[in-house]
Amino acid sequence: MRRREFVRLAGAAVTWPLVVRAQEHVRRIGFMWDSPKAFPDAMEAFRGELRELGYVEGKTIAMEYRYSEGNPERMRAFAEEFVRLKVDAIVAPSSIYTAAAKRATSTIPIVFMSHADPLGTGHVASLARPGGNVTGLSLMMTETNVKLLELFKEAVPTLSRVAVVFDPATPSHTPGLIALEAAGPKLNIRIHPVPVSSASEYERAFAVMVRERAEGVLFLSTPLYIADTKRLADLALTHKLASMFGPRQHVVAGGLISYSPDRKDLWRRGAIVLDKVLKGIKPADLPVEQPTKFELVINLKTAKAIGINLAESFLARADEVIE
Questions:
Q1: Is 10 helix (H, G, I), strand (E, B) or coil?
Q2: CA contacts within 13 A on the Cβ side of 77
């Protein structure tokens, strides 16, 4: 009996430090986003890549998911909570979440996965050498916004007045709007900025578009608008306005056209960046990566409903046509 007791106690003495060491390797990640329903395919691509990299949620990595439903106050509260929890890193997918995280901490690494314009917002010092505690993947939205406008004109050659709906609270929208206002005259398009900061302002915004005789509306992407994809698509359809969006789901919901970097690819690559950070590479030394895949999606049913005939050559360029 004494020998068995000795062996049992000796085994415990050996096992206990191993358990502690294993627990020490569980990395805690703060992840704040709109909702579980926002870009679920991109979220799965992120989690799938983490699994490929050897992380097991609940065992080797603990994900603290927080969902704001587009509420800026919640974003700030979540960022401050992550600091109190002393997480190893914060995943803040877009510019508005990155801004909240940066206000909360200058030391905890922050990884973004679909930031519209990290350089234009001042969230990084440069794309090659971000500096500070922030890095990740960029949508390059300021440049992509101009491409959106060019595609809009190509799809509807008669366009001469386009309303641009933007959220003043979204950091990337200011440089994005400036780029569109500069590009408009080159395409013989007059840009009408329409600020919208809450869902209660949608009806007013469309009334402004009608008053300004806009022929089309371009939405800059932000969590607020993503949360209301169906409503915005329906309003554009009701007012017979051609609509251009970034994220694909707007067109699935009834919008006319979307053009955007492939978020699934960006979020998958975001998991790789997070892995590098967790292995000790400083965000300041990790270059901001740019998109390499883009998607053009067209809703042909909506085009017919508002009386727009899209050229076959334009339809042939689409990655997806919804009929």
A1: helix
A2: 9
pLDDT in tens, 265-299: 999 999 999 999 999 999 999 999 999 999 999 99
> What was the pLDDT predicted at 90?
98
- Cα–Cα distance, 99 to 103 (Å, whole number): 6
Distance CA 148, CA 129 (A): 28
In eight-state DSSP terms, residue 285 is G
In this structure, how many other beta carbons lie within 10 angstroms of the beta carbon of residue 34? 22
Element of type H or E holding 264 = helix 263-278
Q: Does the pLDDT at position 7 exceed 70?
A: no
Give the three-state DSSP class for 166: strand
Indicate the residue type of 61.
I
- What lies within 8 Å, CB to CB, of 149 at 6+ separation is 162, 180, 183, 184, 187, 189, 218, 244
Backbone angles phi, psi at 89, to 5 degrees: -165, 155
CA distance 147 to 176: 11
At position 179, the amino acid (one-letter code) is A
Q: Return left, alpha or beta for 163; rule: phi > 0 is left, psi -120 to 50 is alpha, else beta.
A: beta
Distance of alpha carbon 5 from alpha carbon 281, whole angstroms: 46
User: What pLDDT digit, counting tens, does each position of 245-272 carry?
Assistant: 999 999 999 999 999 999 999 999 999 9
Domain annotation for the chain: domains and CATH numbers: 2-138+263-292 (3.40.50.2300), 141-261+295-322 (3.40.50.2300)
